[in-house]
Amino acid sequence: MEAVISVVMQFCGEEMDAYGQCVGQNPKDWLTKCAELKQKAADCSSNHPAVKKINKECSKEYMTYDDCLKRNPENVTICVEALHAFMNCASKSASRIQSAYKTQDYEPNQTKPLS
């Protein structure tokens, strides 16, 4: 899962840092004062081609995990194996993406097509 977080931070670090700083500077009313920055961070992390690729490559594993949670709301520990399968897939996908970007001369916030 570290690889996934690393990919998100690599491409959306500015947005994530700005949101984190806002939360730290507004401990009592961060929910309202930082709402716009939160949305920017969420938009970046969910709309970036690298994150979309992870979502596409691991959709089967995620659906299995999500279905398990829906079927077992009272005993979600049953779904740990499915969660691990999704996390493993996401980590492998993120590692491939990181490797592809490292072999190219791209700035972190620059997008490039992912095959």
Describe this structure in words.
This protein has 6 helices and no strands. Helix 5 runs antiparallel to helix 6. The two termini are 21 Å apart. The longest helix has 24 residues. By secondary structure, the chain is mainly α.
Write the topology of this structure.
Elements: H1 2-25, H2 30-33, H3 35-47, H4 49-57, H5 59-71, H6 80-102
Largest sheet: none
**Would you count the extended β strands for me?**
0
In angstroms, what is the radius of gyration?
16 Å
What ranges have pLDDT less than 50 throughout 5 or more consecutive residues?
Answer: 105-115
Number of helices: 6
Beta-strand level of the residues, as a percent range? under 5%
The helix/strand order is HHHHHH
What is the helix fraction of residues, given as a range?
over 70%
Q: Determine the N-to-C terminus distance.
A: 21 Å
* Bulk shape: flat
Give the rounded overall mean pLDDT: 81
Structural class: mainly alpha
In short:
With 115 residues, the chain is mostly helical. Helices cover 75% and strands 0% of the residues.
Give short descriptive properties of this protein:
115 residues; mainly alpha; 6 helices; disordered C terminus
